[in-house]
Amino acid sequence: MESLCRWQGVLSILFLATASQGQTSNINLRGLWDYAEGTTVLIAQRGDQVDARFVSIGPNSDAEKRGFEIGDLSFYGSFESGILRAKVSFHYYKADRQKCPEQWSRLTYMTLIPSNGGNILSGSFSRDQLVRATCTIIPGPTGPFLIRRIAGNPPPTSKLFEFGDEFSSQEKPSRLWLLSERPSVMRGELFNVTVGLSGSTLPRVIADRDYHVRLQADHGEFISKDLVIRKDTGTANIAVRALGAGMLTLEASSDQEIQAVDHKLPSCVVGGSIDHFELQNLQQILPANPTLPARVVVAFVDDAGRFVTGGPGDKSLGWHHEGVGSWRMSTLRGQAIGEVAWIPDGQCGLTAELTSAREGKENLTVKFMKQTEYRSFKFYSQLTAGIVAFVAAISALGSFVRTAQRLAIAGSKAESEHRKPIDLLAEYGTGAIGAVALYLAYYFGLVRLFIVFPSGWGIAVLVGISGGYLGATAIDRVSKIVLQGGQRPPDELQDLV
């Protein structure tokens, strides 16, 4: 018996290793599907990965009676040997939500088989029953599941899908991203992670060549240390085993020009009693770029300091946030987080991602039971060639004011006529250099060190004009001081001030 179990474990690992090598199914499920009673779902697919969400809810339909809304998850999964292994989102009826809120919504396993023509998906899943008096769940009968493809083009998916088909070839890859299939894992469990590529501003880009990825895990082990993201694909999958309870850290790196990434998620002990939660974050000041998220990890902890799942049922965290950022679950199919963050039954925590495309602040308050934790984040505008060029260009206004002021003080038409175009060009050039130097000093000396200072286009205008006005004089005086061996005459000191 022991040898049989050992061989089953080896075969499972070999199967996961084979699946992670990028083999994809030829079955295409993308598009609209009829759920019956006026309810439809939209399926997005990337390789073997499938995600279905509701795009219409029929009046008085079973989906409406169970509280589903447009944009909610219907099911997700991946193909294995032509069979879709999925998890379906199952709700009890609306009346049960008030009495048993933690048991009302759950995910359950389901196997779906496409028809020969690929226009019907059918299968079954266990419809466990809810005992309303005690809010306990008991095994129930197996119920059928069937949807039919609807001919025609699907509607836009940008508001319904976090991962969808939004992979672009408009930018060259510059960073790696790594996401887990679930918010936390069990000690000793095998689970899948997805590694992909992002550009300088686009969160999902297609590989322009083969990228070899090196993998490393703290408190865990990958089934292989190397992975390849193939040309013209966007992602690759691999399995990981959590070796112990605690914070599991996954790291992925590639070529020198590709920025590495790490990802943290809690590794749990099943059961236990939740005493409090931990909230960890590595960054509080970061660039305003949708491809560079700040990650916040929440984990339930018992009185012995172990990460535990606690009792049965989903857990909810109060997740109040305000500011310029957007929050989502840091999983492959992570949904946006509103005022409540749900942790599914059997999980001990979550990892959330915060991103922003504009500068500003984001405040977060997390509540669970009687505990409350606060975090504040600052997004600053990134230093780009465009904003530096803008500062240099806008400095011409300051240089013009300075030149006009000098001519007015001179009061001599002959002196103004004596100035050559090369003199004006030199003055404008030194003004631009002074403006850029002033902006760089402001950016690296204040913006990157202190949260309260702005860093966008508005401050670029102010610094650019000021630098253009002062830059020519400052550079002229500094050069004279250097040429005169550091001796500054008193009148020059006054002119500089």
Write a short abstract of this structure.
With 497 residues, this protein is α+β, with helices and mostly antiparallel strands. It has eight helices and 28 strands. The chain folds into three domains: 2-149, Lipocalin; 175-379, Immunoglobulin-like, CATH 2.60.40.10; 385-496, no CATH class.
What does this structure look like?
- The chain is an alpha+beta fold and 497 residues long.
- The protein has 3 domains: 2-149, Lipocalin, CATH 2.40.128.30; 175-379, Immunoglobulins (Immunoglobulin-like); 385-496, no CATH class.
- It contains 8 helices and 28 strands.
- It has an 8-stranded antiparallel barrel with strand order 1-2-3-4-5-6-7-10. Strands 12-19-18-14-16 form a 5-stranded mixed sheet, with no helix packed on it. Strands 21-28-27-23-25 form a 5-stranded mixed sheet, with no helix packed on it.
- The relative contact order is 0.08.
Number of helices: 8
* Computed structural class: alpha+beta
What kind of sheet is the major sheet?
A: 8 strands, antiparallel, barrel
* Distance between the first and last residues' Cα: 89 Å
> Roughly what is the average pLDDT, rounded to an integer?
77
User: Which regions have little confidence, pLDDT < 50, spanning 5+ residues?
Assistant: 1-24, 153-165, 492-497
The overall strand count is 28
Biggest sheet strand line-up: 1-2-3-4-5-6-7-10
Main attributes?
single chain; 497 residues; 3 domains; disordered C terminus
Question: In terms of topology, how is this protein built?
Answer:
Layout: H1 2-19, E1 31-36, E2 39-46, E3 49-56, H2 62-65, E4 73-80, E5 83-91, H3 94-99, E6 105-114, E7 120-126, E8 129-131, E9 136-138, E10 142-149, E11 175-180, E12 185-186, E13 190-198, E14 211-218, E15 220-222, E16 226-229, E17 235-242, E18 246-253, E19 261-268, E20 276-281, E21 285-287, E22 294-301, E23 315-323, E24 326-329, E25 340-343, E26 349-355, E27 360-368, E28 371-380, H4 385-410, H5 413-418, H6 421-447, H7 457-483, H8 490-496
Helix pairs in contact: 4-6, 4-7, 6-7
